[in-house]
Specification:
about 190 residues, alpha+beta, 2 domains, two-stranded antiparallel ribbon, 7 helices, 6 strands
């Protein structure tokens, strides 16, 4: 029992790939994504030649880049299919097109997948946990615009920590207590690298 406790659990090494700019065309004044799975794989392979994006699983984030910043709108996961296929399915494209009709900006995708070139498939538990973390982070960045509906309810609205705006359902009214301020300072370094 003690030997099991001594074993060090190694974290799964992941990497962020992208951003990959999605090509668009105008149809009747509305912008739509015209990039194919094959074109996305080729684009990813040109940027990261050691990785096989025709087989990689993981998570992806759809965002719109405008000026010097970007805003996330959708987080998805790819377990059964590879990232490039899952990110461009017809239901995902419909979600992207809704945003392209309402917002200006260049559509981009980020992939979060294994950092090791030969390691294409991630365990389902890792992909699921990663998706929840990314949805939570994107909800913090764009609470009114995030398109995800699954996991969002479990990530937001279950609790609210008074004076700690980054935990739970958001800010509470009034000035944070001295204890809450100290608690926030305790975690500030952690949040800076998160």
């Amino acid at each position: 029992m003690r030997e099991q406790a001594k074993r060090e659990v190694k974290p799964v090494e992941l990497e962020v790939f992208g951003p990959f700019e999605l090509s668009v065309k105008k149809i009747g004044g509305t912008r739509v994504v015209e990039m194919t799975r094959k074109e996305l794989i080729e684009l990813a392979h040109r940027r990261y030649p050691r990785h096989n994006f025709a087989a990689k699983s993981g998570c992806y984030v759809f965002a719109l880049r405008s000026g010097r910043g970007s805003m996330p709108y959708y987080v998805g996961k790819a377990q059964a299919q590879e990232l490039c296929r899952e990110a461009l399915t017809s239901d995902k494209l419909n979600k992207y097109h809704l945003q392209l009709a309402k917002k200006s900006g260049t559509p981009i995708l980020f992939f979060v997948a294994s950092a090791r070139p030969g390691d294409n498939k991630l365990p389902a538990s890792v992909v699921n946990e990663l998706e929840r973390e990314l949805i939570d982070a994107c909800c913090l960045a764009n609470p009114e615009g995030i398109l995800n509906i699954h996991h969002l309810a479990s990530a937001r609205g279950r609790f609210r920590v008074a004076g700690v705006p980054w935990m739970g359902a958001g800010r509470t009214r009034g000035k944070p207590s001295t204890t809450a301020q100290e608690f926030n300072r305790l975690w500030s370094r952690f949040r800076a690298f998160r």
